[in-house]
Amino acid sequence: MKETNLSGGKRSSNESVLPETNGNPRVSLTGFTNILLDKSNPDKILTIEEERERLRVRFAELPSMSFDGGNVGPFKRKYSEALQILKPFRPASKDGKIPISKAGFFSYIFLTWFSPLVWRMYKHRDVPVSESDVWECSDMEGVLVNTERMKLLWSKELHDHGPEKASFLRVWVRFIFTRSVASLMILVVNALVTFLSSALLVNKVLQYLESAEDNLLYGLGLTAAIMACEVVRAITFANIIVFSAQTGTRFRSGFIGILYDKLLKLRVSKGKTNSEIINAFSVDSYRVYIATWTTIFIISVPVYLIIGTVYAYTLIGYWCFVSVGTFIVCYMTQVQMTGLLKKMRKKCSQHTDMRVRRMGEILNSMKFIKLYAWEKPFNEAIKNVRKSEQKYLLYSALLDAVVGAIIPVTPTIASVVTITVYTAAGNDLNASTAFAIIGTMNFLRIIVALIPIGFRAYGEAKVSFRRIEKLLTLDEFSSPSPDVFNKENAVEIKAANFICETVADDEETKTRIRGRKSSVASSRRESVNLFQLSDIELEVRKGQLIGICGSVGSGKSSLMSAILGRMMLAKGHLAVSGTVAYVAQQAWIFNASIKENILFGQEYKTERYSRVIACCGLETDFDLLKDGDETEIGERGVNLSGGQKQRVNLARAVYSKSDIYILDDPLSALDTRVGKQIFNECIKQELHKKTVILVTHQLQYLKDCDEVLVMENGTVVEKGHHLELMASDGKYSEMFRIFNLTEMKSRKIYSNNDGAPVESEVTEMKKDKKEKPAEETNGIHKPKAKGKLVQAEETAIGDVGVSTYTAYIRAAGGWFAVLVLILVNGFCHAKVSLTASKEMHDKCLDRVMKAPMSFFDTTPTGRILNRFSKDLDEGDVFIPQVTNQLVRILSLTIVSIGTATYVTPWLLIAVVPVVAVFYVMKQVSTVSVRQLKRLENITRSPLISNVNVTSQGLSTIVAYRQQDRFFKRCVSYGDVASMSVFLFDVSMRWIGLRLDLIAGLMTMSSSLIFVVTKGLIPPASAGLVLGLCGKTISIVQFLIRLMNETEARFTSVERLHEYTVKLGSENQDAKKKAPSKWPEKGAITFRNVVMRYRPDIDPVLKDVSFEIKPREKVGIVGRTGAGKSSLATVLFRLVELTDGVITIDGEDISELNLNIIRSKISTITQEPVLFSGTIRYNIDPFSLFTDETIWEALGKVHMKEKIKQFNQDLDTMVEENGENFSVGERQLLCLARAVVRSSKILLLDEATANIDTSTDAMIQQTIRECFADCTVITIAHRLNTVLHSDKILVLDSGKVMECGSPQELLSNPYSFFNAMVTAQSVKTPSP
């Protein structure tokens, strides 16, 4: 099924987003958005902005043109393409796009254009479905066209009402208005024929049976009329849904597009905003789609009431208002219930946002959580939020059950009350009139049945609209002005203040704070001034190299953000003249090959590319990687070291050929040799004619800068050349004095070499070049066998397995609970269904938390979030609804058919073949319904992943001017997702239409039997049967559709169940129990350790052996990618060993409980991890320590005074990922976490890489004091941090090159460590 798409059309990667047209270059494409296409230059490739501009052209501003070039009226001109559907027959479309808009009239109304897909899927039912198996999205249903239209409507709304009063609800109404009017017209026809078949014609048949007249032809005519009405009713009802669903698809596409467009324009994308956006894409987009095609039933209320009231009045006069009044009472009750339902949904969505945000935070920080053995507590944290969410879900479900209980009894109550009152008043009532009244009440039952669906969808959509209103009115990014006063300047900042503000609005956090300090909680909503840059004066000449230094939290990264336009300019002047390339302090890498990450949308130039990777020191890394630069990188660069990620980030910047380079501390993650190479060959040589602004803690590089800025407390305190600043004896010279004390001048041997590599290093470098493989060309290692890291999401095939249903039943409470559910529907059903949903969520969450790191490395976060958002939403909301309806309708169907056949056994002649045909049609249609639902499930994941990646790398994307490229990705993913949703609903209507037509035979058969056998069957019995048949017609086909939909909805349960049974788990079993006080000493031994991350790749640790004595301080050094962090990985058993043994205090860690091992070792990772919440929560998330202990730890890491600056002290808010703290400050808070924990073994993985030299020196002293009785393993590039270690371990290419004390290694002029120290000009400590 995967070779070609359905129509045989092939997709092209450079296919135009807009449709191709032939003939006249001026064409009106649709009735909604009027587009002018200029095909005079077909070879021209349009940018997305040009495409958008063309979309903005209003047809009303153009000459009135038809397809043949003639003048036409405004209606035909505007809807000329849409009216083509009225042609009886049209040639089949061959462009590979969905043919609904190009189908002929009969193909359109009978949905035969969809039939090829149904039969194709049935034929290939044992093959997994993929997006290539279905049609492409047409342009008028696509994201691009509808986004532009929605943006125009939203702009008009903002213009007319202002941001404060702007309503997205009004935008929605304007967007769907014309097509909703068309839907209403079709619905009027449907209402009339439904009334004719269910009430008027049935009454005429009964009157004929009651009369003495024996006109068989008249009776047959009535029967034919009933059949004709049933055919029209079936066709119109199916087309109302399909037409409205098409409208909903267009709105959903525009909803997705305008939201993503806004995301690209946000000045700052933070945690709460990100979770709301992800929820909007996964859940809200579907809710507004449902609301768009269901609210037509709300509009239809007057139509049904008028028709029903008028006919009832002709039957019984003003007594008809008794039945109408009964319906209105029931209707108003439903309206009130729906209002309450909307309030519950709003409360529930707040908790859902919180849960999705927490889940995303956990998934992004899973490595850290596993290192600290915090899976269980964070698991409980998610479940607690889920518990609050389910409380409101239960309230909503109970209200829904009340509304559902009203639906089936309303016609009966109205009929009984009306007939009772009418006869009690002394009026005569014959069988034909009585059954006509009952038929009319059943006709009005449609109002009661469909209105709750429409109102519920409308209420949920209003909640979604309020959410998007809030998002669309957030502050937008504004590029700095290019108008510099001095044309020689690249960057100008004059008398400028920059601020960044946020509002703490986290309900969970406020609750936590309220429990501790009510006074603090009351001020939680106050705006907190996170950081401010004051009185900034900066002029950067074109071609200058500017160095920026300062202590942790002084404002260096904030200044970079200000230059990029990411901080609010409160006053002053900011101008940036030229294109900008940005290297963030925390490298942003997306899931693609290394090559794609470097090119980043630029055209590939071999010579330029080779030069870039050479100057960025990536050649050696490409040699080590199996597929060279074609190696696939996981999300966030999970399979690269910190230094590799940073150099890929830097290579992206250099390759962009920008005018200005903003480099935010890119050298901190690099070892000394590579760092020196990058500075000399990349920054000094490759970028020598460019403007470079370099933030660094490596002070040795500042002497080569044209100008140096020193920052402190958000302002520039000193500025000038290195020599000038040294002579001024200010802050800069003080920093250098500390630097020189820490990184003292080398001994004579080093000063003679002036930092040049010693012989061993030169020899090693030459050796590296000699050993490059022969197939390397232009410095690029050719791929040997390209493999996929992130595999395509698998989809199930065939029927939803019995194991899925049984797992759901067990989660609901077992078979007894299901039996109760069947017998006592409503409230019990709501409780049982939500119990099942809760258990499925908890089991799935447990499995994900226990999954190995390889799962998170190879699975995009969006794919996991998809299951915990939309799939879970199916279980929470939609599955309870459809199963509730299924149980009710199934029992009603059995009763109706049983009664009808009991009264008229001859009816079995029609029932048996009809049921057989129903069964065959169900078997055929179920395949397409189920598979299209599975396709919908998997096509959401790339869309959500794209949103997640975009929000994480927003600054980089905008800095490199890649918004258009990422928007096109959103268009592509959004089109596929929207088409999957639409096709799923069309598949439901395809089978519904055919079942309706077949079921119509049942009514016709009944009527025919009564007409032919007139006089043999009492009219009262005939009326009862005809009434039941009319009800059964709609009920049986509804039952079949419900069965199909239930199975389709259960594909989401299937996906959750898949994680619970198929997802691998870390080896939690312990072969032996660790001693109670283990580890007492902290001795560590590696013996012949071999480790590979995946079975199909080369090992990253190769026969590693060494021994660490109790309380020994060990430094681990080596070039970037040497395997240093991999040692930490195996020590914590994030990856199990391929071979070898690791022992701690003589205990083989592979035989011990995993949580015990991780809880007994503390670590500070290369990338600091903070969670949204308070300072206290981040240091001690489970309240194990007192405030005094936490303050003491903050004092030891020199963050106490910083936290004291905030009024809330330990309740100071931390944003997601610690965005309101600098990277260095985040690292210090992580160190405080380790100090509080006070483990016997501490592993520091580049823990001070983002900290200035003076703070680093104080931190090293803190570590020596606080962890004097502990074994400390320090992985570092800054060699002074390990010079006081007892032992140095040098790694290269996953092997131990040498091991010994610093003095021992430095005494050997040919040692690797000696060469590294020489490169950094570091003096050894005295013995």
Automatic annotation (TrEMBL):
CDD domains: ABC_6TM_MRP5_8_9_D1, ABCC_MRP_domain1, ABCC_MRP_domain2. GO terms for molecular function: ABC-type transporter activity; ATP binding; ATP hydrolysis activity. Residues 763-779 have a biased composition (Basic and acidic residues). GO terms for cellular component: membrane. It is found in: Membrane. SUPFAM superfamilies: ABC transporter transmembrane region, P-loop containing nucleoside triphosphate hydrolases. Keywords: ATP-binding, Membrane, Nucleotide-binding, Transmembrane, Transmembrane helix, Transport. The keyword Transmembrane helix applies. InterPro entries: AAA+_ATPase, ABC1_TM_dom, ABC1_TM_sf, ABC_transporter-like_ATP-bd, ABC_transporter-like_CS, ABC_transporter_C-like, P-loop_NTPase. The chain crosses the membrane at residues 171-196, 216-243, 288-310, 316-337, 392-422, 434-458, 812-832, 902-921. Residues 1-25, 760-780 are annotated as: Disordered. The keyword Chaperone does not apply. Signal peptide: none annotated. Pfam families: ABC_membrane, ABC_tran. Residues 515-738, 1084-1318 form the ABC transporter domain. Residues 184-460, 812-1048 form the ABC transmembrane type-1 domain. It is a multi-pass membrane protein. This is Multidrug resistance-associated protein 5. It comes from Dreissena polymorpha. The lineage of its organism: Eukaryota, Metazoa, Spiralia, Lophotrochozoa, Mollusca.
